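Before a colleague's protein record goes any further, I have to sign it off. Alongside the sequence sits a line of tokens, each denoting a local backbone shape. I want your independent view on whether this chain really folds as the tokens say. Where you disagree with what is written, explain briefly why. This is what I was given:
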Amino acid sequence: MAFATKKELMYAGILTLVFALIVVILALTLPLKQDVIQDQNTKDVNNFNPAYDGNTNAAAQQLKEDQNKAYIECVSRCNENKGTISYSNGPCLSDQFGFDVKGWACDIAHNPRIALDNDPLNQCKSYLNGETNRFVEVDENCAIIR
């Protein structure tokens, strides 16, 4: 068994010192992830997103309720106004007849989609200009597409 020379020991010591220095620098500069066990009803104070209210289950439930309400309202608007205007161009019903679900729009489209459906003239103005951020699409027979 051969023993290390003084030169080899010096290099090993320097490498160990450099490695330890890198570990210390990283430990001081990188943030530590803290696992916070919390109640579902409390806010996450460690989350720096100001839009986050800590209650994702309630937000998801509200979104689902709004979606269901928007589906029902859109199909209803479609059936109510079926004879008053032509649905062949895929008009936006919420622009023409209003819509009672905040943040949602109701649009007629073809199933499957055709180029006419992608024409901004046939799309909901409230969606295009950002007033609403979700929409329901129904076909000419008032069946939900998406």
